[in-house]
Specification:
This protein is α/β, with parallel strands linked by helices. The protein has one domain. Helices cover 21% and strands 16% of the residues. It is built from two helices and five strands, in the order βαβαβββ. It has helices at 15-24, 49-61, and strands at 2-7, 31-36, 66-67, 71-72, 96-97. The strands form two sheets. It has a three-stranded parallel β-sheet, covered by helices on one side. A two-stranded antiparallel ribbon has the order 4-5. α1 links the parallel β1 and β2 (31-36). α1 runs parallel beside α2 (49-61). The N and C termini lie far apart (30 Å).
Length: 110
Amino acid sequence: MLVEYVLLGGVNDSPDDARALCGLLDPKLVKIDLIDVNGTTGGFQRTTRQTRSAFLDVLAEAKMPFAIPLFWCTGCRAGCGQLVAGGSREAPACHESWPERRGERSLRKR
């Protein structure tokens, strides 16, 4: 089963939040898809890279399977931008790479 988890800076992105998430899920049955909130959607902020890395370290220590998309559309109002949160419904063609220190390769903008 795939579980989508939206990281909200300062809200649900701490190591304690990661431990709580691991306590709710069975690593044999689920995979977590981590999504950063886009921009200031709903008044929320993106988590910092350091906080995000600490969160991922907890998941890795718990052997919890997770996926991290290579691209984030920080200017888009598409699914990766948590859909339209007001304003225009047109999505610009933009992709911003946010590679992690775990060896993901950044890809060029399309």
